[in-house]
Amino acid sequence: MEIRKLFRWIHRELGYFFVALTIVYGISGIALNHRGDWNPDMSITRYSDSLTVAVNLVEAQKTDAEAILASINEKDNYKKHYYPSDNILKIFFDVSGGSGSVVINTETRIFEVERLERRFFFYPINRLHRNAFRKAWTWISDFYAVSLVLFAITGMFMMRGKYGLAKHGIYLVIAGVLLPLIVYYIYS
After folding, report:
1. Per-residue DSSP letters for 126-151?
2. Reduced to 3 states, what is the DSSP secondary structure of residue 61?
3. Cα–Cα dist 178/180, whole Å
4. Total Cβ atoms within 10 A of residue 104
5. What is the DSSP track for 77-135?
6. What local confidence, expressed as pLDDT, does residue 1 receive?
7. Within a 13 Å sphere around the CA of 113, how many CA atoms are in the beta-carbon half?
8. Which of 43, 32, 48, 49 is nearest to 125 (CA)?
9. Dihedral sign for Cα atoms in the order 83, 117, 132, 152
10. Given the DSSP bridges, would you call strands 78-85 and 42-50 parallel, antiparallel or unpaired?
11. Contact 165, 157 (CB under 8 A)
12. pLDDT per residue as tens digits for the range 74-119
């Protein structure tokens, strides 16, 4: 078998097999690169209000905390509560696919609710990207990484003529090698 035909076969087969994984890694990579702009894993909702339910805030018991949660539509989601300081009560509650908390100023009765919910699409693909599952996924992602190397190498040798590696392609390969080196040199 001619080497170009073999490379074309490898390139094509790996390309088809890993098309979904390439899209997942590409999208999650962009999302994770912009963590400073947003939280790619969790949707965060915050709001404040004044507590209207009549409960003991100074020595709150579980029933008091549950009554507070019921007043903000989080009934039956109680996890625990504690006092981080003298006039602050913090209550934790479950959220489907996440968690939440209520921080209440016991003197002013003003509270702030924070809900963290997993993003439907981004949370699972970001976990794959970070290899949160370990074990079998490590081998799958290693195989994918080796396949990307093969994909790059076979891709360089597929074209002939004026767009082949010897003429047009070599300049793009050199530019592609220089790009990370320049960025590394500038920012290190």
Report:
1. HHHHTTTT-HHHHHHHHHHHHHHHHH
2. coil
3. 6
4. 23
5. -EEEEEEEETTEEEEEEEETTEEEEEEEETTT-EEEEEEEEE-TTHHHHHHHHTTTT-H
6. 65
7. 19
8. 32
9. negative
10. unpaired
11. yes
12. 988 999 999 999 899 999 999 888 999 999 999 999 999 999 999 9
Residue with tokens 């409960």: 55
Euclidean distance between CA atoms 111 and 80, whole angstroms: 16
- Pull the structure tokens for residue 28: 């999650």
The amino acid occupying position 26 is: G
Which residue type does 98 have? G
Q: How is residue 58 annotated by DSSP?
A: S
Please give the C-alpha separations between residue 26 and each of 33, 45, 101, 118, 149, in angstroms, as whole numbers.
11, 27, 33, 20, 16
Residues 6+ positions from 15 with CB-CB distance below 8 Å: 151
- Tens of pLDDT, residue by residue over 136-159, are 899 999 999 999 999 999 988 888
CB burial of 12-46 (b: ≥16 within 10 Å; e: otherwise) equals eebeeebeebbebbebbeebeeeeeeeebbbbeee
Q: How far is CA 98 from CA 44, 82, 90, 160, in A?
A: 10, 20, 17, 53
Are 98 and 42 a contacting pair, CB within 8 Å?
Answer: yes
* Other beta carbons within 10 Å of 52: 7
